[in-house]
Amino acid sequence: MAHSRLGRLRGIAQRVKGRLAGAALPVGDGFGPERDLAFAVLEEEGDSAFQRVGASLVGAWEVGITDLARVLEARLQTAVKSRLTERLSDALVPTQQPLQDAKHTFSTAVKQGTQAGLRTGRLSDATDPAVAVMAGLGGAVATGWGKSTDYLGPLWDALPGDDLQQRYAGLGDRIRSLLDDQADVYAAAMAALPEQTDLETAVRDAMDQWYAKVSVGIEIIVYDGRTIMVDAATLLPLKP
C-alpha cells in the first residue's frame, strides 16, 4: 500500500518536473550579449515597417492625384490641370520626409539602445531610444502635413469653397493622434517585454502591430483629404 502510494507520488513529481522543464520562462528585465539577435531583428523589422508605412502614404496620395486629375480634366484647361496636379504631387514631400527620416533614426536608436543595454544590463535602457523615436513621430508628421497644406495654396485658390484649406489642415491633427496613440501602444509593448517568453517574437509582433494600425490609418486620412479636394473640384463648371 505504502509502496503504491510512493509510486503515485513519484509519478506526479515526474509529471510536474516535466511541465516545469518545458515551460518557457519570462524574458526578464536583464540585457546582455544574448539579446543581440533579437535587437538585430528589431532593427530589421523597424526598417521594413517604416518602408511599408511610407508606401501606404505614397499609394494613397497617388490615388488622390489620379482622382483629382480626372475631375479637373473635364473642367479646366489641360495646362492648368497639369500645374495643379503637379503641385499636389510635390506637396507630398513635407509629409513624407519625417517618415523617411524616422526610418533612419529608428535604426540608429536601436543600435544606441543595444549599446546602452549592454553597458547597464537593463532591457529598458535598450528599448528607450526606439520608444522615443515613436513618441516624436506624430508631431513631426503633423507639422509636415501643415507644410503640405500651405504648399497647396494655388489649388485652394482654384477650387470653390472658403474653408477647404482649413479642413485639409485639420487632418494633420488626426495624423498626430494616430501616431501618438500607436506610439503609446508601442511603448506599452516594450515595457511589457520582461513578461514575454520570447524576446524576438515580442519585438517583431510589436513592430507589426504598429505598422498595421499606422498604415491603415494614414491611408484613411489621406483619402479623406482627397475627398475634400475632389468634392470641391466637381463644383467647377464643365468646359464648353
- Briefly note the structural class of the backbone: mainly alpha
Note the main sheet: none
Total of helices: 8
Average per-residue pLDDT, rounded, comes to: 92
Number of strands: 0
Structural Rg? 26 Å
**How is the quaternary structure best described?**
single chain
Distance between the termini: 105 Å
Provide the helix percentage: over 70%
H and E order: HHHHHHHH
Note down, in words, how this protein is organized.
This protein has 240 residues and is mostly helical. It is 83% helix and 0% strand. The chain has 8 helices and no strands. The radius of gyration is 26 Å and the shape is elongated.
How are the SSEs ordered, and which strands pair?
Layout: H1 2-22, H2 36-73, H3 78-90, H4 92-120, H5 123-151, H6 153-158, H7 164-191, H8 199-233
Briefly characterize the structure:
The chain has 240 residues and is mainly α. The chain is built from 8 helices and no strands. Helix content is 83%, strand content 0%.
Question: Could you list some keywords that capture this structure?
Answer:
240 residues; mainly alpha; 8 helices; 0% strand; elongated
